[in-house]
TrEMBL record:
A Pfam family matched in the record: PALP
Species assigned in the record: Palleronia marisminoris
Tryptophan synthase beta chain-like PALP domain location: 19-306
GO molecular function per UniProt: L-serine ammonia-lyase activity; threonine deaminase activity
Keyword Lyase: yes
Domain of life: Bacteria
Cofactors (names): pyridoxal 5'-phosphate
EC number annotated for this UniProt entry: 4.3.1.19
Gene Ontology BP terms: isoleucine biosynthetic process; L-serine catabolic process; L-threonine catabolic process
InterPro entries, A to Z: Ectoine_EutB (IPR014333), Ser/Thr_Dehydratase (IPR050147), TrpB-like_PALP (IPR001926), TrpB-like_PALP_sf (IPR036052)
Name of this protein: L-threonine dehydratase catabolic TdcB
């Protein structure tokens, strides 16, 4: 079993410290009153490129050899990893090709292109996009930087856990997005290395929750990808998963699934009560608290992971419209 440990995470913090933002942790007065416990929000949507993915991508790019830099990097993405990798590669002077499925929102595709990456739209799933990445590695010699199942990426994301503990030293519960598992694996490894008593709860959407299905099956499995407000949490975990499946199984205490309306409520809450514009996947911790899926018995923190939401969709949500992206897709 391959795990990324605290030594790799601390090394990642030293490596990327001058290249990322140390984002603030802010108390939520509304959620503190609602839950009866101190609630803290990590404003990672204020990170460069608008999401936590900047940490893992930067840690990976900074470790490339000269030969690897000359060959260029590629990766599959549901949006945020692609933009982060494109940004980190451009800063390092490295060619970057990002492969995505047709389900990735247009605003995220445009944001990646604006960072100078070459774009490939392939199929209707993360697995389809990954096939193009594999071809680029095989035929053009490019270097793959995966969005989650990579030791360098996991260690970079784990730096969030170190910061959370420094800012909330009496933390008892961490609510962390669960998708492919790179973020929650790194954060849980950091938190539990320092404080094994901290509960780490994974939060994800009901539609196409690949890691949840895999945990239930006892092995990585494929699931159908469906349109969801939490699009950044979509995609499979890879049938040949090397790191995150076992790390999630070992380190995550519980998994919570959310409905589309609960995710919508999180977007509305972030705007109305926290004065923040956050994407659907970024608010799932808020949603879990708002709807009573988690009842903390001490200080709790969650991460607002990204701000990459189409502003037209955001307006529809905060205006109170019931939005079902499956119906919108026809």
């Amino acid at each position: 079993m391959s795990h990324v440990g605290i030594d790799e995470i601390e090394a990642a913090r030293d490596r990327i410290g001058g290249l990322i933002r140390r984002t603030p942790v802010e108390p939520s007065a509304y959620l503190t009153k609602a839950t009866g416990q101190p609630v803290f929000l990590k404003f990672e949507h204020h990170q460069f490129t608008g999401s936590f993915k900047m940490r893992g991508a930067t840690n990976a790019v900074e470790q490339l050899s000269e030969g690897e830099r000359a060959r260029g990097v590629t990766g599959a993405s549901t949006g945020n990893h692609g933009r982060a990798l494109a940004f980190a590669a451009r800063r390092a002077g490295v060619r970057c090709v990002i492969c995505m499925s047709a389900l990735v929102p247009k605003n995220k595709v445009e944001a990646i292109a604006s960072e100078g990456a070459e774009i490939r739209i392939v199929g209707r799933s993360q697995d389809d996009a990954q096939e193009e990445v594999d071809r680029l590695v095989r035929e053009e010699g490019m270097v793959m930087v995966p969005p989650f199942d990579d030791a360098r990426v996991i260690a970079g994301q784990g730096t969030l856990g170190l910061e959370l503990l420094e800012d909330v030293p009496d933390l008892k519960v961490a609510l962390v997005q669960l998708s492919g598992g790179g973020l929650i694996s790194g954060v849980a490894a950091a938190l539990k290395a320092r404080r094994p008593d901290i509960r780490v709860i994974g939060i994800t959407m009901s539609r196409g929750a690949a890691m949840h299905a895999s945990l239930g099956a006892g092995k990585p499995v494929s699931v159908e990808e469906l349109p969801t407000l939490a699009d950044s949490l979509g995609g499979g975990i890879g049938l040949g998963n090397r790191y995150t499946f076992e790390m999630v199984r070992a380190l995550v205490d519980e998994v919570v699934l959310l409905s589309e309306e609960e995710i919508a409520d999180g977007v509305r809450h972030a705007y109305r009560h926290e004065r923040q514009v956050v994407e659907g996947g970024g608010v799932v911790g808020l949603s879990a608290l708002l709807h009573g899926h988690v009842r903390p018995d001490g200080p709790v923190a969650t991460i607002l992971t990204g701000a990459s939401i189409d502003m037209g969709l955001h307006y529809r949500l905060i205006s109170g419209e019931h939005v079902d992206l499956m119906q919108d897709a026809g």
